[in-house]
Amino acid sequence: MELNDRAELDTSQVNDLGRGGGSGRGMPIPLPTGRGGLVSLVITVLVALVGGGIGLNAATNGDGAGGEDLEQSCSRDNPDRFGNVKCRNLLYVNSIQDYWKQEYPAISGRQYEPTDTNYFGQAVSTGCGTADSGVGPFYCPADKQVYIDLSFYDELASRFGADGEFAAPYVLAHEYGHHIQNLLGTNERAGQGDQTGPESASVRLELQADCYAGAWARHATESKDKSGQEALFTSITESDIKEAVETAEAIGDDTIQQRSGGGINPDQFTHGTSEQRQRWFRQGYDRGDPQVCDTFGTGRL
Ligand SMILES: [Zn+2]
Protein backbone atom coordinates (compact mmCIF):
# COMPACT_ATOMS: atom_id res chain seq x y z
CA MET A 1 0.00 0.00 0.00
CA GLU A 2 1.07 3.54 -0.63
CA LEU A 3 -0.20 6.55 1.24
CA ASN A 4 -0.69 9.83 -0.57
CA ASP A 5 1.90 12.41 0.51
CA ARG A 6 -0.39 15.19 -0.62
CA ALA A 7 -3.36 14.09 1.49
CA GLU A 8 -4.60 16.46 4.16
CA LEU A 9 -5.53 14.47 7.24
CA ASP A 10 -8.51 15.26 9.45
CA THR A 11 -6.99 15.20 12.92
CA SER A 12 -10.36 15.88 14.57
CA GLN A 13 -11.21 12.18 14.16
CA VAL A 14 -8.50 11.00 16.53
CA ASN A 15 -7.75 11.90 20.15
CA ASP A 16 -4.32 11.13 21.47
CA LEU A 17 -4.94 10.59 25.15
CA GLY A 18 -1.42 9.65 26.11
CA ARG A 19 -0.67 7.32 28.96
CA GLY A 20 -3.49 6.46 31.28
CA GLY A 21 -5.52 8.84 29.18
CA GLY A 22 -9.12 9.77 29.50
CA SER A 23 -9.86 10.85 32.97
CA GLY A 24 -6.96 13.17 33.53
CA ARG A 25 -7.13 12.44 37.21
CA GLY A 26 -4.95 9.57 38.26
CA MET A 27 -4.79 6.05 36.97
CA PRO A 28 -7.89 4.01 36.28
CA ILE A 29 -8.03 0.58 37.81
CA PRO A 30 -6.58 -1.85 35.29
CA LEU A 31 -8.44 -5.01 34.38
CA PRO A 32 -6.58 -8.22 35.06
CA THR A 33 -4.97 -9.34 31.84
CA GLY A 34 -4.15 -12.90 32.79
CA ARG A 35 -2.48 -14.71 29.96
CA GLY A 36 -1.91 -11.74 27.77
CA GLY A 37 -3.03 -12.05 24.20
CA LEU A 38 -5.52 -14.86 24.52
CA VAL A 39 -7.41 -13.29 27.34
CA SER A 40 -7.01 -9.91 25.73
CA LEU A 41 -8.81 -10.81 22.57
CA VAL A 42 -11.57 -12.54 24.44
CA ILE A 43 -12.16 -9.51 26.58
CA THR A 44 -12.16 -7.35 23.48
CA VAL A 45 -15.49 -8.71 22.42
CA LEU A 46 -16.93 -8.53 25.89
CA VAL A 47 -16.14 -4.88 25.99
CA ALA A 48 -17.59 -4.49 22.55
CA LEU A 49 -20.81 -6.14 23.63
CA VAL A 50 -21.25 -4.95 27.16
CA GLY A 51 -22.76 -1.68 26.06
CA GLY A 52 -22.23 0.49 29.06
CA GLY A 53 -23.17 -2.15 31.56
CA ILE A 54 -20.07 -1.90 33.65
CA GLY A 55 -20.63 1.38 35.22
CA LEU A 56 -18.09 4.10 34.87
CA ASN A 57 -18.93 6.94 32.61
CA ALA A 58 -15.90 9.13 32.78
CA ALA A 59 -15.60 11.55 29.92
CA THR A 60 -13.15 10.32 27.36
CA ASN A 61 -12.44 13.26 25.16
CA GLY A 62 -9.37 13.87 27.21
CA ASP A 63 -7.30 16.92 26.71
CA GLY A 64 -4.31 14.69 26.11
CA ALA A 65 -2.63 13.51 29.24
CA GLY A 66 0.73 13.53 27.54
CA GLY A 67 -0.70 13.09 24.06
CA GLU A 68 0.93 14.38 20.91
CA ASP A 69 -0.17 17.34 18.83
CA LEU A 70 -1.32 15.44 15.75
CA GLU A 71 -2.21 18.62 13.92
CA GLN A 72 1.47 19.40 13.85
CA SER A 73 3.04 15.95 13.53
CA CYS A 74 0.64 14.74 10.85
CA SER A 75 0.60 17.93 8.79
CA ARG A 76 1.48 17.81 5.11
CA ASP A 77 4.47 19.98 5.93
CA ASN A 78 6.08 17.11 7.73
CA PRO A 79 7.64 14.89 5.05
CA ASP A 80 8.24 12.09 7.55
CA ARG A 81 4.72 11.96 8.91
CA PHE A 82 3.95 8.48 7.58
CA GLY A 83 6.88 7.16 9.55
CA ASN A 84 4.76 8.02 12.59
CA VAL A 85 2.36 5.22 13.51
CA LYS A 86 -0.15 7.77 14.83
CA CYS A 87 -0.34 9.57 11.50
CA ARG A 88 -0.65 6.36 9.51
CA ASN A 89 -3.49 5.17 11.72
CA LEU A 90 -5.12 8.58 11.48
CA LEU A 91 -5.13 8.21 7.71
CA TYR A 92 -6.76 4.78 8.00
CA VAL A 93 -9.47 6.19 10.29
CA ASN A 94 -10.10 9.04 7.82
CA SER A 95 -10.41 6.58 4.97
CA ILE A 96 -12.74 4.20 6.82
CA GLN A 97 -15.04 7.02 7.83
CA ASP A 98 -15.05 8.59 4.39
CA TYR A 99 -16.13 5.21 3.03
CA TRP A 100 -19.00 4.92 5.51
CA LYS A 101 -20.06 8.49 4.90
CA GLN A 102 -20.73 7.39 1.32
CA GLU A 103 -22.02 3.92 2.02
CA TYR A 104 -24.00 4.12 5.25
CA PRO A 105 -26.95 6.10 3.81
CA ALA A 106 -27.36 3.39 1.15
CA ILE A 107 -27.79 0.63 3.73
CA SER A 108 -29.72 2.59 6.35
CA GLY A 109 -31.44 5.54 4.71
CA ARG A 110 -29.76 7.75 7.28
CA GLN A 111 -26.65 9.86 7.53
CA TYR A 112 -23.48 8.37 8.89
CA GLU A 113 -22.49 9.61 12.35
CA PRO A 114 -18.71 9.96 12.49
CA THR A 115 -16.93 8.90 15.65
CA ASP A 116 -13.48 9.25 17.11
CA THR A 117 -10.67 6.84 17.67
CA ASN A 118 -8.78 7.30 20.92
CA TYR A 119 -5.13 6.40 21.18
CA PHE A 120 -4.18 5.49 24.70
CA GLY A 121 -1.29 3.94 26.55
CA GLN A 122 -1.56 1.51 29.43
CA ALA A 123 -5.10 2.33 30.55
CA VAL A 124 -8.12 4.38 29.64
CA SER A 125 -11.49 5.40 31.06
CA THR A 126 -14.39 4.91 28.67
CA GLY A 127 -18.16 4.91 28.69
CA CYS A 128 -17.86 1.14 29.10
CA GLY A 129 -15.62 1.37 32.15
CA THR A 130 -11.88 1.38 32.51
CA ALA A 131 -9.73 -0.81 30.34
CA ASP A 132 -6.04 -1.47 30.08
CA SER A 133 -3.97 -2.22 27.01
CA GLY A 134 -4.32 -5.95 27.55
CA VAL A 135 -7.85 -5.89 26.19
CA GLY A 136 -6.65 -4.99 22.72
CA PRO A 137 -8.44 -2.50 20.48
CA PHE A 138 -12.14 -2.21 21.16
CA TYR A 139 -15.31 -0.32 20.40
CA CYS A 140 -17.44 0.98 23.25
CA PRO A 141 -21.12 1.10 22.24
CA ALA A 142 -22.02 3.33 25.18
CA ASP A 143 -19.86 6.26 24.10
CA LYS A 144 -19.66 5.12 20.45
CA GLN A 145 -15.89 5.44 20.28
CA VAL A 146 -12.97 3.28 19.24
CA TYR A 147 -10.02 2.73 21.60
CA ILE A 148 -6.59 1.46 20.70
CA ASP A 149 -3.19 1.25 22.29
CA LEU A 150 -1.06 1.33 19.15
CA SER A 151 1.47 -1.01 20.72
CA PHE A 152 -1.15 -3.70 20.05
CA TYR A 153 0.26 -3.98 16.54
CA ASP A 154 3.61 -5.04 17.96
CA GLU A 155 1.86 -7.74 19.92
CA LEU A 156 -0.07 -8.79 16.85
CA ALA A 157 3.24 -9.20 15.05
CA SER A 158 5.24 -10.87 17.80
CA ARG A 159 2.60 -13.03 19.45
CA PHE A 160 0.30 -13.79 16.56
CA GLY A 161 2.73 -13.56 13.66
CA ALA A 162 0.51 -11.02 11.89
CA ASP A 163 3.24 -8.56 10.97
CA GLY A 164 1.91 -7.22 7.69
CA GLU A 165 1.41 -3.50 7.39
CA PHE A 166 -2.19 -3.94 6.35
CA ALA A 167 -3.06 -5.57 9.68
CA ALA A 168 -3.58 -2.12 11.17
CA PRO A 169 -6.20 -0.82 8.75
CA TYR A 170 -7.97 -4.16 8.97
CA VAL A 171 -8.15 -3.93 12.77
CA LEU A 172 -9.49 -0.36 12.65
CA ALA A 173 -11.99 -1.16 9.91
CA HIS A 174 -13.21 -4.08 12.04
CA GLU A 175 -13.75 -1.76 15.02
CA TYR A 176 -15.60 0.76 12.86
CA GLY A 177 -17.68 -2.18 11.69
CA HIS A 178 -18.90 -2.39 15.28
CA HIS A 179 -19.76 1.28 15.13
CA ILE A 180 -21.89 0.66 12.04
CA GLN A 181 -23.59 -2.21 13.88
CA ASN A 182 -24.23 0.10 16.80
CA LEU A 183 -25.78 2.75 14.56
CA LEU A 184 -27.93 0.12 12.87
CA GLY A 185 -29.00 -1.42 16.17
CA THR A 186 -27.48 -4.77 15.20
CA ASN A 187 -25.31 -5.15 18.26
CA GLU A 188 -28.13 -4.27 20.61
CA ARG A 189 -30.16 -7.12 19.14
CA ALA A 190 -27.14 -9.41 19.20
CA GLY A 191 -26.53 -8.54 22.84
CA GLN A 192 -29.67 -10.45 23.68
CA GLY A 193 -28.37 -13.64 22.01
CA ASP A 194 -25.75 -16.20 23.03
CA GLN A 195 -22.37 -14.67 23.72
CA THR A 196 -20.30 -17.78 23.15
CA GLY A 197 -20.52 -20.78 20.87
CA PRO A 198 -19.89 -21.48 17.17
CA GLU A 199 -23.20 -19.99 16.03
CA SER A 200 -23.58 -17.44 18.79
CA ALA A 201 -24.73 -13.88 18.28
CA SER A 202 -21.25 -12.79 19.28
CA VAL A 203 -19.60 -14.80 16.50
CA ARG A 204 -22.13 -13.47 13.96
CA LEU A 205 -21.45 -9.91 15.06
CA GLU A 206 -17.68 -10.34 14.83
CA LEU A 207 -17.77 -11.99 11.42
CA GLN A 208 -20.00 -9.23 10.16
CA ALA A 209 -17.47 -6.65 11.37
CA ASP A 210 -14.80 -8.56 9.41
CA CYS A 211 -17.01 -8.47 6.33
CA TYR A 212 -17.59 -4.73 6.72
CA ALA A 213 -13.81 -4.32 6.96
CA GLY A 214 -13.50 -6.16 3.66
CA ALA A 215 -16.10 -3.93 2.01
CA TRP A 216 -14.11 -0.88 3.09
CA ALA A 217 -10.84 -2.39 1.82
CA ARG A 218 -12.39 -2.83 -1.62
CA HIS A 219 -13.16 0.88 -1.82
CA ALA A 220 -10.32 2.30 0.26
CA THR A 221 -8.44 3.74 -2.69
CA GLU A 222 -11.54 5.78 -3.59
CA SER A 223 -11.64 7.47 -0.19
CA LYS A 224 -10.78 11.16 -0.08
CA ASP A 225 -8.87 13.38 2.30
CA LYS A 226 -10.18 16.30 4.36
CA SER A 227 -10.22 18.65 1.40
CA GLY A 228 -12.16 16.12 -0.66
CA GLN A 229 -9.60 16.60 -3.44
CA GLU A 230 -6.89 14.09 -2.73
CA ALA A 231 -6.98 10.32 -2.37
CA LEU A 232 -5.75 8.98 0.96
CA PHE A 233 -4.22 5.83 -0.52
CA THR A 234 -2.42 5.91 -3.81
CA SER A 235 -2.47 2.13 -4.00
CA ILE A 236 -3.60 -1.01 -2.25
CA THR A 237 -2.44 -4.26 -3.76
CA GLU A 238 -3.49 -7.87 -3.59
CA SER A 239 -0.57 -8.49 -1.21
CA ASP A 240 -2.06 -5.95 1.22
CA ILE A 241 -5.35 -7.80 1.10
CA LYS A 242 -3.46 -11.00 1.73
CA GLU A 243 -2.00 -9.42 4.87
CA ALA A 244 -5.48 -8.56 6.12
CA VAL A 245 -6.61 -12.11 5.45
CA GLU A 246 -3.56 -13.49 7.25
CA THR A 247 -4.35 -11.29 10.23
CA ALA A 248 -7.93 -12.55 10.26
CA GLU A 249 -6.52 -16.07 10.21
CA ALA A 250 -4.12 -15.39 13.06
CA ILE A 251 -6.85 -14.19 15.40
CA GLY A 252 -9.47 -16.87 14.74
CA ASP A 253 -10.83 -18.47 17.90
CA ASP A 254 -9.62 -21.96 17.02
CA THR A 255 -6.12 -20.73 16.20
CA ILE A 256 -5.89 -18.73 19.41
CA GLN A 257 -7.18 -21.63 21.47
CA GLN A 258 -4.75 -23.99 19.82
CA ARG A 259 -1.87 -21.63 20.36
CA SER A 260 -2.71 -21.39 24.03
CA GLY A 261 -2.33 -25.16 24.24
CA GLY A 262 -5.78 -25.91 25.58
CA GLY A 263 -7.28 -27.66 22.57
CA ILE A 264 -10.18 -26.38 20.50
CA ASN A 265 -13.45 -25.75 22.32
CA PRO A 266 -16.16 -24.37 20.00
CA ASP A 267 -18.46 -23.67 22.95
CA GLN A 268 -16.08 -20.86 23.88
CA PHE A 269 -15.93 -19.26 20.43
CA THR A 270 -16.70 -15.54 20.39
CA HIS A 271 -15.20 -14.26 17.12
CA GLY A 272 -15.33 -17.21 14.71
CA THR A 273 -12.72 -19.59 13.40
CA SER A 274 -9.75 -18.58 11.30
CA GLU A 275 -11.45 -20.01 8.23
CA GLN A 276 -14.63 -18.02 8.91
CA ARG A 277 -12.86 -14.77 9.64
CA GLN A 278 -10.87 -14.99 6.42
CA ARG A 279 -13.91 -15.99 4.40
CA TRP A 280 -16.13 -13.17 5.66
CA PHE A 281 -13.44 -10.55 5.18
CA ARG A 282 -13.00 -11.87 1.64
CA GLN A 283 -16.72 -11.88 1.05
CA GLY A 284 -16.91 -8.18 1.89
CA TYR A 285 -13.83 -7.45 -0.19
CA ASP A 286 -14.78 -9.49 -3.25
CA ARG A 287 -18.29 -8.08 -3.47
CA GLY A 288 -17.41 -4.62 -2.14
CA ASP A 289 -20.85 -4.26 -0.62
CA PRO A 290 -21.87 -4.38 3.05
CA GLN A 291 -25.22 -5.85 2.03
CA VAL A 292 -23.45 -9.19 1.51
CA CYS A 293 -22.46 -9.23 5.19
CA ASP A 294 -25.64 -10.80 6.52
CA THR A 295 -24.06 -13.13 9.04
CA PHE A 296 -27.32 -13.27 10.98
CA GLY A 297 -29.48 -14.52 8.13
CA THR A 298 -27.03 -16.89 6.47
CA GLY A 299 -27.30 -20.66 6.41
CA ARG A 300 -23.56 -20.91 6.04
CA LEU A 301 -21.77 -19.07 8.77
ZN1 LIG B 1 -14.77 -7.18 17.19
UniProtKB/TrEMBL annotation:
Chain segments annotated as coiled-coil in the UniProt record: none
Membrane topology annotation: Single-pass membrane protein
Protein name, as recorded: Metalloprotease
Subcellular location: Membrane
Swiss-Prot/TrEMBL keywords: Membrane, Transmembrane, Transmembrane helix
Coarse class of the protein's main subcellular location: membrane
Region annotation Disordered: where it falls in the sequence: 1-25, 256-277
Domain of life, source organism: Bacteria
